[in-house]
Amino acid sequence: MTERREMPEEIGARLELEWRSLLEAISATERSPLDLSPDRRVAVSRVALLAELEEVREEWKSLQGVVDEEMGARFANAAWTLKDLLAHLASWAREFGSEIATVARKESFDYAIPFAMSILGPNQWNEREVQARRERTLEEIFREFDEETARLQDLMIEMEEPLLYQPTPFPLAPSGNQKERLPVPPAFLVSGKCLHDRYHFAQIRKLLARFRE
Amino acid sequence: MIGAKEEGGSSLENRVLRARSRGEMSADAAFEALFQEYRRIVASWLAVRVDSGSVDDLAQDVWLIFYGRFRRWEFGTEMESAEARPVLSFLFRTCQFVARGHLRLARSRRSDPLEEVEEKIAASGPDTLLRDLEAAKALSLARRICPEEEIDVLLAKLAGMSAREVATTLSITEAVVDHRYRDALSRLRSKMKVGS
To answer: Which has fewest Cβ within 10 Å: A5, A86, B16, B85?
Structure first.
């Protein structure tokens, strides 16, 4: 008897049937994050942090595909060009990577980054780091961010469990007093890094849309 | 039911997002409606990608990530299209990243002989759940023989995402979406016989 291969559309239909069976059979959890207490509704497991860092890297790659030197030279705000804004993200990627690596080595910090608690962040530090990157090419800035974010992913895999969730005095000093540094668990710092990146990515996307008008 | 349409052809997601953007629904009520609508899809997407013992935990990660994001959700112009489902697209992408993170973590643990994870992985292969489901032969086969980028397209299309949505979510063109889908079917066709 001759065997007949299914046609692609028959296979497509079969897959759809199987998919519907899977949807019906799967024991999907009914535990909604809303069932957790509000302070536990945060995605800080190692896998969640790896996923958020991966998302940030993908978004960064897509920016790399569209931002050229000419765009990079255009102003993003009164003080910074788009390239400066990208350098700002690269500088924080390096800083966060270095801070988490320090905690992973069980070492402490001998410096602080003071800033008044505001949406503007630590202005002096930001300005110094952006200035330090002015001579670099866009390619170097893109590479720095990606390598440092990849380093954070490695650290999320390697870091000892207690260290990852233990409140640690990082260099950020929100009161402006260098001796009053911010105690946060490293996992939350990494989550905050992703939030910071996404905040600026949204700004950059809007900026690119304006450039194209 | 997923994909169910009301008058005007808009999906439940679209209606929830519109209601939320107009302040007619609280953030929590809107989140819960979306959770109930998509929790089976999220679990199924994960079940095709990872060991069955990890699906619940990873689904929880996906939903916690979405919970954090939904509180700052920007209701963009995509809502003007009745077909657009930005939440489903977001969940799809997040499942991808979470599964990737899980597999990377599992691989690193496997290289450590002292870790219990190794035993867990050995006990439940990547598609145990699919193997257990008699109905999922083609899906299980697809998981084994198709490259990840074809699985991505297959799973998105099975969940009812349009080629345009899949293309936008994966940052590829619609032509590439179609190409990968056809390649996956051809790959399956070469391995499947009628009645199998």
So the answer is: A5
